[in-house]
């Protein structure tokens, strides 16, 4: 799998802000995208290489069916906005079972930043001022990461945590990477725009550098 070979990429959660950005980035690079959503009508945009289907990321059989016809599967499903943070844990289990049963597809998961190590010590979510409203989602994302780690070689996975702040903005095409520690700039800030997060995600699909582990990005 190289950057010059067009990929067929399935994206669960393609109607969300991050999922749609990854889809747009992949299409712009010449890849084919299968946008999977519970409500397909919410998927924005139309393209000759975009296929929109109905699906549920917590259904392992659905994941397997989608994965069987793709080079890569991306999960950009959060659940926090709907008040269902635990959905990411259910999704993690279904993704491991479904992708491994589906065959050769790689798996890239849009993760959370809360479980990253903070420069001050502890995790991002343990820092003073971390909003209580974000903690259930952060803790669920951390448990989902453990599901993938426990899966070992059963599936070819990568978990991509964003910077502490991920927000709409410009696509610069540049970013720095880290492992389990938050990436901060000289001012101690950790941020990334959604378009540049999408750049990092598709870069990883084209040229895998973080197989079987979590990585993070920031400016």
Automatic annotation (TrEMBL):
<feature type="domain" description="NAD(P)-binding">
    <location>
        <begin position="13"/>
        <end position="204"/>
    </location>
</feature>
<dbReference type="InterPro" id="IPR051606">
    <property type="entry name" value="Polyketide_Oxido-like"/>
</dbReference>
<dbReference type="GO" id="GO:0016646">
    <property type="term" value="F:oxidoreductase activity, acting on the CH-NH group of donors, NAD or NADP as acceptor"/>
</dbReference>
<dbReference type="InterPro" id="IPR016040">
    <property type="entry name" value="NAD(P)-bd_dom"/>
</dbReference>
<protein>
    <recommendedName>
        <fullName>NAD(P)-binding domain-containing protein</fullName>
    </recommendedName>
</protein>
<dbReference type="Pfam" id="PF13460">
    <property type="entry name" value="NAD_binding_10"/>
</dbReference>
<dbReference type="InterPro" id="IPR036291">
    <property type="entry name" value="NAD(P)-bd_dom_sf"/>
</dbReference>
């Amino acid at each position: 799998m190289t950057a010059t070979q067009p990929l067929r990429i399935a994206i669960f959660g393609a109607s969300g802000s991050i999922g749609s950005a990854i889809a747009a980035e992949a299409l712009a690079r010449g890849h084919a995208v299968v946008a999977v959503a519970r409500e397909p009508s919410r998927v924005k945009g139309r393209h000759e290489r975009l296929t929109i289907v109905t699906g549920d990321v917590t259904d392992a059989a659905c994941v397997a069916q989608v994965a069987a016809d793709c080079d890569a599967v991306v999960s950009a499903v959060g659940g926090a906005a709907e008040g269902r943070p635990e959905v990411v844990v259910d999704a993690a289990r279904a993704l491991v079972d479904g992708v491994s049963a589906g065959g050769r597809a790689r798996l890239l998961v849009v993760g959370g930043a809360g479980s990253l190590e903070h420069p001050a010590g502890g995790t991002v979510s343990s820092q003073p001022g971390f909003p209580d409203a974000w903690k259930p989602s952060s803790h669920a994302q951390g448990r989902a990461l453990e599901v993938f780690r426990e899966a070992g070689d059963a599936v070819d996975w990568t978990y991509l945590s964003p910077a502490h702040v991920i927000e709409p903005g410009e696509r610069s095409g540049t970013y720095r990477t880290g492992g389990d520690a938050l990436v901060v700039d000289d001012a101690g800030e950790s941020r990334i725009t959604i378009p540049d997060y999408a750049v990092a995600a598709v870069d990883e699909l084209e040229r895998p550098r973080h197989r079987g582990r979590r990585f993070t990005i920031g400016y």
